[in-house]
Amino acid sequence: MKKKNYNPENQPKAWFFLLPSLLVIVLFSIYPLFRSLFMSFQKGTLINQEYAGLQNYQMVLKDPVFFKAIRNTAIYAFSVVPIALILSLGIAWVIFEKVKFKSFFETIFFMPYVTSTIAIGIVFRYFFNGDYGIINYILGIFGIPAVNWLDSIQMSMPTLIIFGVWTSLAFNIIILLSGLRNIDEEHYKIARMFGATDGEIFRRITFPQLVPTITFLLTVNLIGSFKVYTQVYALFGGKAGIANSATTAVYYIYDKFHVANRPGIAMAATVILFLLILVVTFLQNKLMKRVGR
């Protein structure tokens, strides 16, 4: 088959077909980013704003509530992402190796991903209810005292982490199953011919081949975890837990923008969160490249 050479005359046509997508990206991604940066140096309401310099950043960095939100966000991210990924990897491996009707189970695991987080949060509120929740009922069967999952300062973050792990499983499992399918079956056949155990096959063949997929999931999940908001809103009924014990960075931004009507402070917190996510993602990618070697 003869390879086609690049034709400069086709470039205008290519830009024409890319134009709708580029307009959407500029309008809903690039413009809000620069608009947020501009507003972070402004004070006042949305209607009446004036230049404030670095005042908003100084206020955010002196606010103990912001550091509490960042701490809760970090606890959530560095708990949910590894736990969910390990569980997803185990479940995907079992489905891929041991289960016959793979398509059926893939559909079951994917259903929560396409379901509204708010709807799932309402269901989990019933599960975690201290008086009649199914979680405490199951604990009672084993003689374990009931836990105040939703209305306790100490339990707000553990409850949110459990909910976050569950909501992360569906996407992870589907992506990992796709990665497992891309591994050449000949590797497994040769390994079994030489008497390799399932554990050795997983460590020496499956896991190394899944490193790019795991890297992708780590990046996506870390970014998503640092932007956690919907889970908090859904699980605690529009609040950030009792006494704001489960407040996160994005919830802090929402509170400053919509409740306190301080858009400049909210946008300053947004820029700081953006830079934090950028640094964490960069370090995570560096680490995974070393692991891949």
Automatic annotation (TrEMBL):
Keywords, comma-separated and alphabetical: Cell membrane, Membrane, Transmembrane, Transmembrane helix, Transport
Main location (coarse class): membrane
Record carries keyword Transmembrane: yes
Ranges annotated as spanning the membrane: 12-34, 74-96, 108-128, 134-153, 160-181, 232-253, 265-283
Keyword Transmembrane helix: yes
InterPro entries per record: ABC_transporter_permease, MetI-like, MetI-like_sf
Gene Ontology annotations for the cellular component aspect, listed alphabetically: plasma membrane
Similarity comment: Belongs to the binding-protein-dependent transport system permease family.
Protein name: ABC transporter, permease protein
Organism: Enterococcus italicus (strain DSM 15952 / CCUG 50447 / LMG 22039 / TP 1.5)
